[in-house]
């Protein structure tokens, strides 16, 4: 049996990012690794409710009082807030990677947030594996059992040294 390899898993959406720490071990070379994870830290977006503050109430406005109400600029504003949070998450991943350079680091982001996070990681030249996955609602044991998580962490951790 191979020795345990430290792991860092980041699961993120546009509102929060969760850092899981744990270990991987492999009993046989051809077997998937055994994954153990526990929640270590959570980073919440300081802007998640920002767009609601200071806005006038939309009710009773527009061509009809029972029509669907929204603000024209809300879509662009939401994308900007997601880009800001992606920058924070990328910096957070870089900090956590520096704290444990020997650990395998893999980040998963929901599809809507994935492009923002990849752009932010490349902007700071962070060499991190960022995969597509909506896993922010899963508990640590469910994450550890998920095939996508197991495969991504296993392939990141058991690469030859110097190729991360």
**Order of strands across the biggest sheet?**
3-2-1-4-5
| Oligomeric state of the chains in view | single chain
Just name the CATH architecture.
Answer: 2-Layer Sandwich
Question: Major beta sheet, specifics?
Answer: 5 strands, mixed
How do the SSEs run, as a string of H and E?
Answer: EEEHEHEHH
**Number of structural units classed as domains:** 1
Shape: globular
Overall pLDDT, averaged? 77
Write a structural description.
The structure is a single chain. This protein has 164 residues and is α/β, with parallel strands linked by helices. The protein has one domain: eRF1 domain 2 (Nucleotidyltransferase, domain 5). 34% of the residues lie in helices and 24% in strands. Strands 3-2-1-4-5 form a five-stranded mixed sheet, sandwiched between helices. A hairpin with a 3-residue loop joins strand 1 and strand 2. The C terminus is likely disordered.
Give the SSE map.
Blueprint: E1 5-12, E2 16-25, E3 34-44, H1 74-99, E4 104-109, H2 111-123, E5 129-132, H3 140-145, H4 147-157
Parallel strand pairs: 1-4, 4-5
Antiparallel strand pairs: 1-2, 2-3
